[in-house]
């Protein structure tokens, strides 16, 4: 398996524009997590899904952020409109299950977002 | 969420063992102790996890105190590639809806050649 695949790797956009980040989890994984990492706040969990259903979105910073998982092999994180303070590295991670011994989460390489 | 406390930074010489401590005095009975690390410009990667007993894998060993209020990640022979930020995380392994993997500030490990 190619692992968790995120696209794009880098995104530069102007303030006010819509940004869509994409994630393809590892096949067969039931859980998908979206994180944001900044120097000031470290790694923050934004939202996670189980079997395509959002379970906890309490980390989503505001209404400008939305995430969807239309099927088991694809998820998007959308920011509309984007602001300079959204500049960060966004990571997607997937995991097969958490209630058994094999509970390793696999992370993608991240998308570095710069909003100017 | 149960909290963990780690030193902000540590240094170690190459080819020597490294012991990374983590305190988690409020750990609950269903919390697993997980360790992840993040190499520069990469996403976090899993290192090891355990519940009560000490654990070994190809990357590291995890020593868990008998009262489970602290643990130590052991890298047996550090290489330059082990320079990373190491995160100690408690994760509920029993209750649906509490599966979030919450990262703290971690320990930045520097390896001295």
Please mark out the parts of chain A with pLDDT under 50 across 5 or more consecutive residues, or reply none: none
What's the total helix number of chain B? Answer: 0
Query: How many strands, which pairing sense, and closed or not: the largest β-sheet of chain B?
Result: 5 strands, mixed
Oligomer: heterodimer
Q: Compute the CA-based radius of gyration of chain A.
A: 14 Å
Please report the total strand number of chain B as a whole number.
9
> Residue-averaged pLDDT of chain B, rounded?
92
Strand order of the largest sheet of chain B: 1-9-8-3-4
Q: What is the string of helix and strand elements of chain B?
A: EEEEEEEEE
**What's the Cα radius of gyration of chain B?**
14 Å
Q: Helical amount among residues of chain A, as a percent range?
A: under 10%
Shape assignment of chain B: globular
Low-confidence stretches of chain B: none
**Biggest sheet character of chain A:** 7 strands, mixed
Terminal Cα separation of chain A, in Å?
35 Å
End-to-end Cα distance of chain B: 38 Å
Query: How many H/I helices of chain A?
Result: 0
Derived structural class of chain A: mainly beta
The counted number of beta strands of chain A is 11
């Amino acid at each position: 398996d190619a692992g968790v695949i995120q696209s794009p790797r880098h995104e530069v956009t102007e303030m006010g524009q819509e940004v869509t980040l994409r994630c393809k989890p590892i096949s067969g994984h039931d859980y998908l997590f979206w994180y944001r990492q900044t120097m000031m706040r470290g790694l923050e969990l934004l939202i996670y899904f189980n079997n395509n259903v959002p379970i906890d979105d309490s980390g989503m910073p505001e209404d400008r952020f939305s995430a969807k998982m239309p099927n088991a092999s694809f998820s998007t994180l959308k920011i509309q409109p984007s602001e300079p303070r959204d500049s960060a590295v966004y990571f997607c991670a997937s995991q097969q299950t958490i209630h058994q011994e094999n509970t390793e989460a696999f992370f993608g390489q991240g998308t570095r977002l710069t909003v100017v | 969420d149960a909290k963990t406390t780690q030193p902000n930074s540590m240094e170690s010489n190459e080819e020597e063992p490294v012991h990374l401590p983590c305190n988690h005095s409020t750990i609950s009975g269903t919390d697993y102790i997980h360790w992840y690390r993040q190499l520069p410009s990469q996403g976090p990667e899993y290192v090891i996890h355990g519940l009560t007993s000490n654990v070994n894998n190809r990357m590291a060993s995890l020593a868990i105190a008998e009262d489970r209020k602290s643990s130590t990640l052991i890298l047996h022979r550090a290489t330059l590639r082990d320079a990373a930020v190491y995160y100690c995380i408690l994760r509920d392994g029993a209750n649906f809806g509490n599966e979030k993997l919450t990262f703290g500030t971690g320990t930045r490990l520097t390896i001295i050649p």
